[in-house]
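Quick one, tokens below:
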């Protein structure tokens, strides 16, 4: 905090679902994230490891990152769709943003948008680069807009 004080609002503290966090560690992180820096806490790899509603409420994240294993072929799997939909509904009620990790196909993109995710991440929109990309390709932007029920035009 002392070294990066002026940049802290740009940080996101990610807790992985592979491990649990001790109560005292969690309280220190919440104090740093909320009171001192206004940096959000995110749960990474949600849906794997120790992910459960108890930890979700305990961590009080601002972002839930749904694990790519739940996103892979989600358009073909009703159980994945139901789990992701219920996670999104819980998140929206509690003012939590949801990110779908590992989007690799147009079908996956379309399905997670229809389910209501706030953010997407994956090779379909852009591969990792040494420098941040300036924009995603126009055809992908069009797919995102076309898939979003909130952006559909009423003719």
């Amino acid at each position: 905090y002392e070294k990066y004080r002026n940049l802290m609002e740009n940080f996101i503290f990610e807790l992985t679902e592979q491990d649990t966090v001790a109560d005292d560690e969690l309280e220190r992180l919440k104090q740093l994230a909320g009171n001192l820096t206004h940096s959000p806490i995110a749960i990474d790899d949600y849906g794997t490891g120790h992910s459960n509603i108890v930890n979700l409420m305990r961590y009080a994240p601002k972002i839930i990152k749904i694990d790519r294993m739940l996103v892979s072929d989600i358009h073909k799997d009703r159980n994945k769709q139901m789990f992701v939909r219920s996670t999104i509904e819980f998140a929206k009620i509690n003012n939590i943003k949801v990110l779908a990790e590992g989007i690799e196909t147009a079908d996956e993109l379309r399905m997670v948008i229809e389910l209501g995710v706030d953010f997407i991440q994956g090779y379909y929109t852009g591969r990792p680069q040494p420098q941040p990309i300036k924009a995603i390709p126009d055809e992908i932007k069009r797919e995102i807009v076309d898939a979003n029920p909130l952006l559909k035009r009423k003719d």
